[in-house]
Specification:
By secondary structure, the protein is mainly α. The protein has ten helices and two strands.
Length: about 260
């Protein structure tokens, strides 16, 4: 019998705090770091790398699957997936953990918090570099929170970095509407600060958040808000974001309508 994956929500609701150490084991002493443009870029790359780990990617696949997509081979010894398929999810199930996503969020918060100060130290780190890096990190953080509220509903909303292992890790959960408003505010703030998709020709066009990528995420967020909360104005916002992406591609093509692949 096919099971609806949303039954996961009932067990996820039991989680009430950030239950993992968010600081990396090889945490660099802060006063010796954040000195150069390279330092910031290394942390930006680290945030993306942490998002690409197998632990996170496998969770995102399971969390976003529909009932007929999660075709579990019950003959295999994978109790975590078997619990989901049988709608008998235990609190120890590995897919209940959100710690890895909060590690990404903390990396983003670190860059957002420290990027500006580097401009006062390294003359090669310019305002445009700072705005682009902060925009990428706010977009990546927003993506993490967008996954979290759709799966867990109420989650801790953490906007400041953990810099010390003694910092309080038990954080109250916020309602999904509160987190959603923060996501939208962040994306609206930075949507034009990332590099234009048409000006990036190397791997960063697909590996980083570009301007069209931020607009695409914002469109998805508005669409979700409209469908869940019945907010008709969010449908209009979604359309505006999609039209912006479309127009950017048309302008980049010299006024010619791009192919469906390019869009």
């Amino acid at each position: 019998m096919k099971k609806i994956l949303s039954v996961i929500l009932s067990s996820f609701a039991l989680v009430s705090c950030v239950d993992t150490v968010l600081l990396p084991d090889d945490k660099t002493v802060e006063e010796d770091f954040w000195q150069t443009k390279t330092d910031v870029e290394m942390m930006v790359n680290g945030a993306y790398s942490s998002m690409a780990t197998a632990n996170i990617q496998s969770r995102l696949v399971v969390w976003t699957s529909r009932s007929d997509e999660l075709n579990v081979n019950t003959a295999l010894n994978n109790s975590n997936l078997n619990q989901i398929y049988s709608a008998n999810i235990q609190t120890t199930n590995a897919y209940n953990s959100w710690g890895d996503l909060y590690a990404v969020i903390n990396n983003c918060n670190l860059v957002i918090s420290k990027s500006e100060s580097v401009m006062n130290i390294d003359p090669n780190y310019l305002e445009g570099d700072h705005q682009n890096n902060v925009a990428q990190m706010k977009a990546l953080r927003s993506l993490c929170y967008f996954y979290l509220i759709r799966v867990f509903r109420d989650v801790p909303l953490i906007l400041e970095p953990y810099k010390e292992s003694s910092a309080e890790m038990n954080v109250s959960q916020s309602a999904p509407a509160v987190v959603l408003d923060q996501i939208i505010a962040d994306l609206e703030e930075v949507k034009n600060n990332t590099l234009s998709s048409q000006n990036v020709s190397n791997w960063k066009r697909c590996g980083y958040f570009t301007r069209d990528g931020v607009y695409a995420l914002l469109a998805d967020v508005y669409l979700w808000k409209a469908s869940i909360y019945g907010d008709e104005s969010s449908y209009d916002k979604c359309i505006e974001c999609c039209n912006t992406i479309r127009n950017n591609r048309i302008n980049a093509a010299g006024g010619q309508r791009p192919s469906a692949f390019d869009l």
